[in-house]
Amino acid sequence: SRVVTLAVIPGDGIGPEVVAEAEKVLDAVTAGGDVVFERTRFSLGAGRYLDTGDTLTDADLEAIAGHDAILLGAVGGVPGDPRLKDANIERGLLLKLRFALDHYVNLRPSKLYPGVPGPLAAPGDIDFVVVREGTEGPYVGNGGSIRTGTPHEIANETSVNTAYGIERVVRYAFAQAQRRRQKLTLVHKTNVLVHAGGMWKRIVDAVAAEHPDVAVDYLHVDAATIFLVTNPGRFDVIVTDNLFGDILTDLAGAVTGGIGLAASGNINPDGAFPSMFEPVHGSAPDIAGQQKADPTAAILSVALMLDHLGLGDEASRVTRAVEADIATRGSATRTTAQVGDAIAAAVQA
Ligand code: NAD
Ligand code: IPM
Ligand code: MN
After folding, report:
1. Binding site for NAD(+): residue ranges?
2. Which of 49, 63, 273, 348 falls between 20 and 30 A from 172, CA-CA?
3. Ligand 2 centre and the CA of 311: distance in Å?
4. Each residue of 172-199: b (16+ CB within 10 Å) or e?
5. Which positions make up the binding site?
6. Buried b (16+ CB within 10 A) or exposed e, 10-27
7. Is 168 among the domain residues?
8. Do 63 and 190 reside in the same domain of the chain?
9. Which residues bind NAD(+) (predicted)?
10. Which atom of ligand 2 is nearest to the CA of 242?
């Protein structure tokens, strides 16, 4: 039998609640099969910081990096909690993992499943994937401020874009488009961000020349938000930078029925480091501990993980079980665990 080592980071708020259901479904889909997921749990997040003062130690990072894959719930405390003022869990933990493990592809699929009520009157067929660059852009922390807190303060946040970093994520996006509907849209803001945008455009054009089977177009990010609402069916693969991708994927989640359904993979396609799978949503302190969170995004993140690990059959069994569950969701409210139970049962049916 094949052993896959999995680092599990439940995190804060609803993180542990949705991860419990994701693991339930992972157990169901691997039961009786010959793949075994050997799990190590890591207590990380705002809770750990408040207990110990640690965000992510070198030992944590090294231990996590030794696994085949990572499943993360969500991290982060209540926004504005004064005790977390100096912590910055998001940078010190989540982004540190993405950067250190070279997760240069942040893969965020968006699909409107049949039966899901969304906010759009005429959504059409929505089925696209955002390939968000994960290691560069304005996220790198290349900035600083002077005269901080004075009326003369100057704060800079420099977006770092490298030809190497853009080309590798663009190539991944083209490969996705070839496997899908052969359409790729670059989203940027080349009319204003001429230096970075110009390089993104040139690299996409160069890689496009090697992929005559893929139809390529370009949208400024502001216009892309219009089309994501008025005609989301026009998109197949969107490739974009770290910050634009962050914003577009919350919007994409909203138009496909809510953030409780949006899954993601932070992927190192080269396999040099473990990839990390997590819902797009955060720790939702407003509903934490109440069994109100929808675990579907975490469960679909397990499907992305299985697919990444070459377990395509298991991945599609999870996806089909989720689709079946979604199709029969009525207005009845179920607990987080009830949704997980139903999907786990459907996986084994
Ligand atoms: P959030 O995604 O946690 O919550 C936004 C809204 O969506 C809330 O009303 C919440 O109740 C709802 N929601 C989120 N997930 C849901 C689910 N599965 N089912 C039902 N409703 C759900 O975003 P936020 O409030 O901006 O952030 C809360 C904390 O999470 C912050 O500390 C933030 O930094 C952190 N965060 C972490 C991640 C991550 O770990 N990947 C991602 C985003 C935000
Ligand atoms: C996400 C989150 C993170 C991001 C934050 C919490 C650092 O919003 O995963 O989308 O901006 O990437
Ligand atoms: Mn986000």
Report:
1. 282-294
2. 63
3. 27
4. bbbebbeeeeebbbbbbbbeebeebbeb
5. 98, 108, 132, 222, 246, 250, 282-294
6. bbbbbbbbbbbbbbbbbe
7. yes
8. no
9. 282-294
10. 12
Q: Whose CA is nearest to atom 6 of ligand 2?
A: 90
Same domain, 231 and 328: no
pLDDT for the residue numbered 328: 86
Ligand 2 pocket, mutate which of 90, 96, 248 (most atoms under 8 A from CB)? 90
Domain boundary, last residue among 255, 277, 311: 255
Chain segment 38-77, per-residue pLDDT in tens: 999 999 999 999 999 999 999 999 999 999 999 999 999 9
Distance 290 CA to ligand 1 centre (A): 14
Domain membership of residue 169 (yes or no) is yes
* Domain extent at residue 155: 119-255
The pTM of this model reads 0.96
User: Of 255, 287, 316, which residue is a domain's last?
Assistant: 255
Complex ipTM value: 0.97
CATH number for the domain that contains residue 289: 3.40.718.10
Residue having the nearest C-alpha atom to atom 20 of ligand 1: 293
Say what the pLDDT of residue 88 is.
86
Q: Is 298 in the pocket of ligand 1 (CB under 6 A)?
A: no
Instruction: Say if 264 falls within a structural domain.
Output: no
How many secondary structure helices (H) and strands (E) does the chain include? 12, 12
Same domain, 90 and 154: no
On whether both 133 and 218 belong to a single domain, the answer is yes
Name residue, tokens 């990010």: 221
pLDDT for res 114: 85
Residue type, 5: T
Query: What parts of the chain have a pLDDT lower than 70?
Result: none
| Overall domain count for the chain | 2
